[in-house]
Design goal:
The protein has 243 residues and is α/β, with parallel strands linked by helices. It has two domains: 182 residues, 2-enoyl-CoA Hydratase, Chain A, domain 1, CATH 3.90.226; 47 residues, Lyase 2-enoyl-coa Hydratase, Chain  A, domain 2, CATH 1.10.12. It is 49% helix and 14% strand. The strands form two sheets. The protein has a five-stranded parallel β-sheet with strand order 1-2-4-6-9, sandwiched between helices. Strands 3-5-7-8 form a four-stranded mixed β-sheet. β1, α1 and β2 form a beta-alpha-beta unit. The longest helix is centred in the N-terminal third of the chain and has 20 residues. It is globular. The mean pLDDT is 96.
Length: 243
């Protein structure tokens, strides 16, 4: 597995250098990494948001430029072939929640809080929050969270559908356990499944079913399909080769 840690004390703000480094890491993610985990260092925050020091001088054009950069990087995370798990311990606010939303699965500690406080600053979520959150939990609940600017507890976020799991244990350990489980499965099958889900959500059910059928057919021509079926009949663990 690959672990990406945001380490920008004291609250892991998304400073421009942090975004640049994240961009490089995601762009150069090795193909043989089966699962990616994104987390924050320090235990206080996953990511507390964008660096507000950048905001006073922003005008229309520089504001658009700023958020387009963040959107592009988060789009790269969402588009990774591998499943991406966010391990959240502490605050995931603003850009931090948007980073988590770009991941496939979100696991958080019970003490964590998530939210979009941007309206308190006279702005709005700009790294994909107004687009990814409604697609995940529906427009009404997303509007309630974004318009109020109020954070949700981890349990509230799970009930809303933002988090998949809330744990009293370390979310990083839970994320690793899930990553290890996924890594034992056929990597090509997992990646095709992710692609079929993501592409299908952006189209009609009919077109999505076609995407699914094509992906299934393509997997039927792989060595991993043959290995998986053989291992099933031989009652042994499969040895997948990514071919």
């Amino acid at each position: 597995m690959g672990i990406v840690t945001i380490d920008s004390p004291p609250v892991n703000a998304l400073e421009q250098q942090v975004l640049d480094e994240l961009d490089q890491i995601v762009t150069n993610m090795p193909k043989d990494v089966d699962v990616v985990i994104v987390t924050g260092a320090g235990g206080k925050a996953f990511v507390a948001g964008a660096d507000i020091k950048d905001f006073p001088e922003l005008k229309k054009e520089t504001g658009i430029e700023l958020v387009k950069k963040g959107q592009r990087i988060f789009d790269k995370i969402a588009a990774l072939e591998q499943p991406v798990i966010a391990a959240i311990d502490g605050f995931a606010l603003g850009g931090g929640l948007e980073l988590a939303l770009a991941c496939d699965i979100r696991i958080a500690s019970k003490r964590s809080k998530v939210g979009f406080p941007e309206v308190n600053l006279g702005i709005l979520p700009g790294y994909g929050g107004t687009q990814r959150l409604p697609r995940l939990i529906g427009p009404g609940k997303a509007k309630q969270l974004i318009f109020s600017g109020d954070p949700l507890s981890a349990e509230e976020a799970k009930q809303a559908g933002i988090l998949e799991e809330v744990t009293e244990d370390s979310p990083m350990e839970k994320a690793k356990e899930l990553a290890e489980t996924i890594a034992k499965r056929a990597p090509l099958g997992v990646r095709k499944a992710k692609k079929a889900i993501d592409e299908g959500l952006n189209t009609t059910l009919e077109e999505g079913l076609h995407i699914e059928a094509v992906a299934f057919g393509e997997l039927c021509d792989t060595e991993d399909k043959n290995e998986g079926v053989a291992a099933f009949f031989e009652k042994r663990q499969p040895n997948f080769s990514r071919k």
